Amino acid sequence: MPLAFRVLATVLAAAAGLAWGQAYPTKPVKIIVPFAAGGPADLYARVIGEKLQASLGQSFVVEDKPGGGAVIGTDAVAKSAPDGYTLLMMSNTHTVNESLLKDKPYSLLKDLVPVAPVNYSDLLLVIHPSVKANTLAEFIALAKANPGKLNYASSGPGTPYHMAGELFKAMAGVDIVHVPYKGSAGARTDILGGQVQMMFDAITTMAPNVRAGKLKALGTSGKARSSVLPEVPTVSEAGVPGYDAVIWLGFMAPAGTPKAIVDRLNAEITKAANAPEMKKAWADQGAVSMSMTPEEFGHFLREDIEKWARVVKISGAKSDQ
Questions:
Q1: Element at 250 (helix H, strand E)
Q2: How far apart are CA 186 and CA 265, in angstroms?
Q3: 3-120+248-315 adopts what CATH topology?
Q4: In CATH terms, is domain 122-238 a member of 3.40.190.10?
Q5: Which among 78, 159, 160, 200 could disulfide-bond with 111, CB atoms 3.0 to 4.6 Å apart, if both were Cys?
Q6: Exposed, middle or buried: residue 296 (CB in 10 Å: 0-12, 13-18, 19+)?
Q7: What pLDDT is attached to residue 320?
Q8: What pLDDT sits at residue 19?
Q9: What is the per-residue pLDDT for 3?
Q10: Which of 190, 200, 188 is nearest to 162 (CA)?
Q11: Domain with CATH 3.40.190.150 in the chain
Q12: What is the pTM of this model?
């Protein structure tokens, strides 16, 4: 094909893609959340979906499809038509699963494309009031004196709550038994009831239980203290220097989704997540808005996959899948 025709074909293809992106969406869009209802991913998917519906003029319908350590819902998106009408609300569970789960039916960065991040929030290390420790240093000493006798709950293998616990065990040098649940609700119920002694949970959902005296907070998981519970030290400053593990959320779409649609979604999600009223509301809950291009988000995902692969290897973390 002569050069002039190749250039013309490229220009026409780009113009068609731009027009497609501008026309999108022309029908309702499904957001699949591969986690249980009521958790941070489900709640924030609904908030962003409402904003997208207002700005783009079509319904964004959230469908919770939990199971398999987030694999069932994620695979459903990976196998969907790459037309922008099925999106995945994902988290660092997905980057952990790349090394934790060897037999997944998809590969995250091959079968899906990054769209946009949403926000991140600190986790809170809490213990039941019956545990005879009031500081993180005292809890670590108690765990070292009783190897294998204390338990910690998580919402399931590979979730941020699980990996935060494994990172803590590795860095603090303690032997605490992981008790996985099929969602965060069951884990919270059992730590509140004293069936398990410790848990890492999103500060957005656990802070009220701490304020009510139902649990003791020993540390927050980020690099700096949280504005939600500023009196609680970070895990790093309280006894495990360098500790850092947060929960973040973002959107992906099936591989092959037109770039014009990905770019449009990125712009609208970023605008929604960073609107002043949204940032303030989330800050009050302990969440921080994120902003990246699809390319930057892809780089972020690759780095997070590498980070948690190291943790999985060092900790020997296993999945029950």
A1: strand 246-254
A2: 34
A3: D-Maltodextrin-Binding Protein; domain 2 (3.40.190)
A4: yes
A5: 78
A6: middle
A7: 57
A8: 53
A9: 53
A10: 200
A11: 3-120+248-315
A12: 0.83
Pairwise CA distance, residues 102 & 321, whole Å: 9
Q: Is residue 10 pLDDT above 70, yes or no?
A: no
Going 92 to 98 to 103 to 106, the CA torsion angle's sign is: positive
Contact 92, 248 (CB under 8 A): yes
What b/e string do you get for 58-67 counting C-beta neighbours within 10 Å, with b at 16 or more? Answer: eebebebbbe
N- to C-terminal Cα distance for the chain? 51
Whole-number Cα distances in Å, 259 to 13, 22, 255, 266 = 12, 12, 10, 10
Q: Which two tokens stand for residue 311?
A: 């943790």
Helices (H), the chain: 3-23, 40-56, 71-78, 92-100, 108-111, 136-145, 160-172, 184-193, 203-211, 235-238, 259-273, 276-285, 294-315
Write the Ramachandran bin of 173: left for phi over 0, alpha for psi from -120 to 50, otherwise beta: left
Phi, psi (deg, nearest 5) at residue 80:
-80, 165
CATH 3.40.190.10 domain position(s) in the chain: 122-238
* Residue percentage of the chain with pLDDT more than 70: 93
